[in-house]
Amino acid sequence: MTRREKVLTYLEKCIINKPQGVTTSEISEAIGVLRPNVSKELNQLVREGRVKKINGRPVHYLMNPAAGKRETKVQQKPNIGFAGSAQIQDQRVKKKDTANKHEIDVFENMIGSRDSLKNQVEQAKAALLYPPHGLNTLIIGPTGSGKTYFAHKMYHFALNKKIISKKGFTTFNCADYAHNPQLLMSHLFGYVKGAFTGASADKDGLIQEADGGMLFLDEVHRLPPEGQEMIFYFMDHGTYSRLGETAKTHHADVRLVFATTEDPKSSLLQTFVRRIPVIIQLPDFNQRSAREKLKLLEQLLTLEANRIHKNIRLNEDVVQALLGSVTYGNIGQLKSNIQLVCAQGFLNSMHDKNEIALFFNRLPPDIKDGLSNLASDRKELGNLSRLLEATMVIKPDAERGVPDIDSYELPYNLYEIIGDKAALLKEEGLNQAAINNFIMTDINLHLKSFYRQGKLENTVGGLNEIVDQEVIDITKQIQQQLQEKENYPVRDNFIYAMSLHISSFIKRVQSGKPLRTISADLISMLHDYPSEIKIAERVKTLIEEHYRFPIPESEVYYMAILLVSLKSDPKTGKVGIVVAAHGNSTASSMVQVVTQLLSVNNIAAYDMPLEMSPKIALDGIAAQVKKIDQGSGVLLLVDMGSLSTFSSKLTEKTHVHVKTIDMVTTAMVLEAARKTALIDSDLETVYRELREFDGYSRTVEKVQKKKDNALKRSDQREKAIIAICSTGEGTARKIKDLLDKILIDNLIDDITVITVSLVKMNDQIAEIQQNYQIVAATGIVKPHVAVPFVSLENLLQGGGEHFVSLIEELNHDAAREADPLNHSQSLTKEMIQNYLGQYFTFINPAKIVNVLLDYCDFIQRRCRTKMSNAFKISLIMHMAGALERYLTRSEMSVDEKKLSHVRMGEMYPIIKQAGEILHQTLNIKLSENEVYYIVELFNTEKEKNDTQNN
Amino acid sequence: MTMDVRLLRIDSRLLHGQVTTNWAKAVKVNRILIVSDRVAQDRTRKTLIIQAAPPGISTNVITVEKMIRLYHDPRFDVLKPMILVEDPVDARRVVEGSGIKIDSINIGAISFDNTRVMVTDAIAVNAADVEAFKWFHDRGIKLDVRKVSNDSSKNLWKSLSEKGLVRSK
Questions:
Q1: Which of A50-57's residues contact partners 24+ apart within 8 Å by CB, and which partners?
Q2: What is the pLDDT of residues A423-440, one digit of tens each?
Q3: What ipTM goes with this model?
Q4: Which of A556, A712, B24, B115 is the one with CA 20 to 30 A from A580?
């Protein structure tokens, strides 16, 4: 029961025995909810008219007898306010309702409808008004450009013009079911009883639901071929069949609006572009005029002002930063960013009843960057500056900016959460600075977790390859239930771990395999976790309800242990830092400074008086390493090279992954603390980045590396990767298959994948270590082994690459340095000369290299693209080969057909012109055949870059 | 079933422009294997070579020993590789060690150096190379000289005999 429901239920009870009403304190005591929260719920309910407020001291509240019917109307209102008055709000809503009736052209107030969207609006109107039934429309535009918003406008236009008979805007995102065409089809078209397992009764689809209204199909390029065919048939004839029927006898009158981010030229869209008569292309945010951008910003800010019922005040530079912060996501991104800074502003201006102020210096760094992004485009900045005033104040205005339902709307009211938290913390006696700090972290988390959903879609895509969509769907349901009803905290990887587990035991049950027996130690272990057992039983019931077969009792235990592990495993901790330096207080004073500056807690010092013996130092450092390790390894900063050999000894002693850098300055320690304090940066990354910090010598570590490798080579044990799953059985096999595939794909044949069950993880790992050298781990939890760990999410998200590079590092002598070709012009030249000398016989490297570099520069200038160093070298080597073939009269042959084809390409004339350089300097004229191969070289490179960029 | 080796090619420069644009398309491979102990240790050359790989075809640099191991491992039977080696000696080590069945070996270019003599415009050989070529010839494996697949094929054995480096058989 939500807090709101609790309050309402209590008030209902009081109608009879306390007709004079009850006070906030009384309610608070009776239902066990903190007073400020009760008070807030009450204010809200009063505003909605469900509860009456009787002024006096103390104020009394009672149920409003006329309540209930107003619910739907109230929905439209921004449902929170700290300052605004209920009366005024009501009037505004009413005014809006009446205004709507007169205002027929809803496109009028859309930003850009007379400017950058003029054509689009006319297209849309024409499409809707076209007799007799209008034309179906495809909206194309990049992510966040407002396709859903535009479709909504089309719907309202159609409704006002009485083009559609029924209220109803049905939305369907084709990507949601793209992996399961049958499920998608059944959603869209409905099905008849018996069409597939589980189809126990006839069911209508969305098409029928949208009859007389409008159906919006988003991400339509993800619609599978079967779906396309049906939709096209429906477009042509107005009839369709449900799944399991042969005759297309059902009729529906539906306006179809499609949307996609795909390039209309792409093959995915070809059929749509051909079959859909009206195509509306929405512009990028950056194609919009400065005036429009500003208006969009104003409108989005008004939306937030409405939500918080306060004015929003912001300076010129904040406006510029916000506009500049839009890098890829268009209006959607702008909206998200505005939400973030308003949340921050709201928090900082909590005491001010009338307005919140946004200051540039308080903006999050990536939004601050927006200012410099914008500044790089002088013209745009100029246009904008002309329109800007020094300060801008946005007032709440219910007529503008009523939020539409779109994917950029948070599913909950962020400001309400902030208000609640702040009140709570204040009650706890925290000071304002601490409260702000705490809540800002929280806001970031909320927004991050929300916007990460986009990413999650992808990852669930990866999961989809090994688990049925149905299982993923039910797991999502379970996750939701646990969060909402049981108030059970669910971690990010819940979907992965749980769906894999469910999938494996369902397969097991279905295939009639014997059930897993429960070991006694498992049961005894679970006695300590009664709440997880309870939740597991809930989950079991949910699954039983869905699949309609009994789940064995033993699964409850396995599920419970899965829940325990998902819960207890702390989010991978920060990388620890130990500073060890000679001198009585050198290390500790440096650490003190850094701790104070950054308020971090992942750093420890070890002072070594000069007379201290290395043995004692090693033990002392080991103790510090153990103390500071949070499971992600420790970075050791030392002041003398001799200490840097400690890494492997320390790892041996402490079983903590240790990396050493032989440089200690306060700046270095600061940098290390800053980097490790960022969540998710692992030891290897921090280590690599810090080594590049200041460009100091790396020799010590290299020597060390060799020693490490000698150590590794002497290890006769076979290498293994461990994969950790709930049971180590069915699911684990799938992960093993996946890993095996990755390994084979990368030609790695000397590493075995071993699956490990969560239940006896530590014992099993110890056993494995007797025969194998564990080099990496993956799975649902991070084991306590000092090896790189790749989480299941990352692995499925295409982290296979990362995994392989980890393994390659293990296999090879040195850590992968930054791109070895990323060096200066003169070095490249030297290297080219070397190779020329090595591979060619007749040409003179020292003399030819400059000619060929000029040749490259010429082409580079003409194409206006920068060649990578690698490609430049490759091209020069090829050219040297061509020159030598010319000299020895042994040119390569080409098919005549291919030759004429190449002449049509854009590179051909450039290569011909570049050939003049060789003609002038060397008096050599390359044949058409050779020109062909040069052009092909460029084409291949281009193709490669294109595929990489997509 | 074993790995279907579509082409074994000797070229001092291993993977470069011509090979990229031409052979990979002509012989329809799903993998390019650069087999060279030297390059496997040389990060710069390795990077250069991998970057010259044609789009869509994975390319790996491996040692001779690993090539032999992979050939005998049924897990890698799905590969249809083009194998590139630097010189005939490595080619022989690969074929002899793995037992790959081939009826011809393609030779693109072998760079001249102080130990070698030129036998064609692009191929230079030393004693060890000649020894290796003999080994191939004795097993009925054709020594096919072509820079790109369109070129007309020349037999290296003929050139070697004409130079008096081998006795014609």
A1: A50/A8, A51/A11, A52/A21, A54/A20, A54/A21
A2: 777 776 666 666 766 666
A3: 0.84
A4: A712
In CATH terms, A715-811 corresponds, of 3.40.50.2300, 3.40.50.720, 3.60.15.10, 3.40.1370.10, to: 3.40.50.2300
Q: CATH top-level class for A3-75?
A: mainly alpha
Q: For the domain made up of A118-282, give the CATH fold.
A: Rossmann fold (3.40.50)
8 Å CB contact of A940 and B44: no
Residue of higher predicted confidence among A896 and A207: A207
Cα separation, A188 vs A410, whole angstroms: 26
Is A874's CB within 8 Å of B12's CB? no
Interchain CB distance below 8 Å, B55 and A940: yes
> Is the entire prediction scored with pTM above 0.90?
no
Q: Does A881 touch chain B (CB under 8 A)?
A: yes
Q: Which fold has domain A825-949?
A: PTS-regulatory domain, PRD (1.10.1790)
d(Cα A438, Cα A433) in Å, to the nearest integer? 9
Q: Answer whether residue A466 shows pLDDT above 80.
A: no
Residue A39's identity, in one-letter code, is: S
Closest partner CB to B12 (pick from A821, A839, A870)? A839
Query: CB B16 to CB A878 under 8 A?
Result: yes
- Cα–Cα distances (Å) from A388 to A260, A274, A315, in that order, read 34, 44, 9
In order of their start, the domains of chain B are 7-162 (3.40.35.10)
User: What is the C-alpha to C-alpha distance for residues A878 and A761, in angstroms, rounded to an integer?
Assistant: 55
B72 catalytic per annotation: no
Cβ–Cβ gap A870/B47 under 8 Å: yes
Give the 3-state secondary structure of residue A40: helix
Sign of the Cα pseudo-torsion (A604, A609, A610, A614, in order): negative
Token pair of A573, please?
Answer: 């901790």
Which CATH number is associated with domain A576-712?
A: 3.40.50.510
State whether A747 and B75 contact (CB < 8 Å).
Answer: no
A950 touches chain B (CB under 8 A): no
Q: What is the pLDDT of residues B33-83, one digit of tens each?
A: 999 999 988 878 888 888 788 877 888 999 999 999 999 988 898 899 999
Smallest CA–CA distance, residue B134 to chain A, in Å, is 24
What residue ranges do the domains of chain A occupy?
3-75, 118-282, 289-449, 465-479+486-568, 576-712, 715-811, 825-949
Q: Does A871 touch chain B (CB under 8 A)?
A: yes
Determine which of A705, A709, A718, A747 to mutate to test the interface with B (most B C-beta atoms within 10 Å). Answer: A747
A79-117 pLDDT, tens digit per residue, is: 333 333 333 334 444 444 444 444 567 888 888 888 889
Nearest CA of chain A to the CA of B73: how many Å?
A: 8
Residue of chain A with shortest Cα separation from B40:
A812
A893-933 per-position pLDDT tens digit: 787 888 888 888 888 999 999 999 999 999 999 998 889 88
Please state, in angstroms and rounded to a whole number, the distance separating the CA atoms of residues A219 and A177: 11
- Nearest Cα to Cα of residue B106 among B50, B23, B167, B162: B23
H-helix segments, A747-893: 761-771, 792-794, 800-811, 825-839, 845-863, 869-887
Is the pLDDT confidence value at A597 over 80?
A: no
Residue-level pLDDT at A457: 43
A814 contacts on B by Cβ (under 8 Å): 43
pLDDT band at A521 (very low <50, low <70, confident <90, very high): low
User: A576-712 and A715-811: same fold?
Assistant: yes
List CB contacts of B57: < 8 A, sequence separation 6 or more.
B24, B29, B30, B31, B32
Size of the A and B interface in Cβ pairs below 8 Å:
102
> What would be the CATH architecture of the domain defined by A465-479+486-568?
Orthogonal Bundle (1.10)
Do A877 and B44 lie within an 8 Å CB cutoff?
no
